[in-house]
Structure of GcrA cell cycle regulator:
Amino acid sequence: MSWTEERIDQLKRLWGQGMTASQIADELGGVSRNAVIGKAHRLGLEARPSPVKGGEAASGGSPAPASPAPAPERVAAPAPRPAPAPAPAAQPPAPAPAAAPPTPQPIVRSIGPGGFQRQAPGEQSAPITPAPPRRLVPAKPSADIADKTSLLDLNDRVCKWPLGHPGEPDFHFCGEPINPGFPYCLSHCSVAYQAQLPRRDRRPPPPLPFGGPRVR
DNA sequence: CCCTGATTCGC
DNA sequence: GCGAATCAGG
């Protein structure tokens, strides 16, 4: 596997979201945890609370005997990374063209800390695909969305779940009353927030989200 | 043992 | 640039 732009992009996002190297490696597939770490460092992504820090370590691939890498003291641990939040994965609610209706089983949901519904394990959608950072455009007033929630209508009480994509004429936001404490309404919370499953149990084959990563 | 990220270094 | 090997720490 090679580091395509898409994969690098995904690496950056996942790493930024606080996923561990092996988790990222699993997601990406075809690469090892080491590969991920190596790439992350090469990219300049840096310093996440590492277990090994104080002590100096790692002699290279060759069993070089004594040459304890100096590096006396690495100062400053900047990057006060904002705790790996639950990742408000703004999954593009894309107009699901190829709606894949899986097994219609009775769904049992539990209620999360914020009062939102957790997804049942069975309805875990594979890739948490945060909407690729799209450039915001000046919400264009359109007769079509005159009665919909536009960018300018957003406030801290309405669901900010985007519907459609910025730039598109009918782009707007959900606008329903929010689930207190969250930026989305109850139903969108249950889409945006997922309980993290044990890595082993996670669905591996991530079907590309509607059309896949944005093509520039 | 498992896991983590960091580092080195041959390729 | 890549990533296996190796490290040290939880």
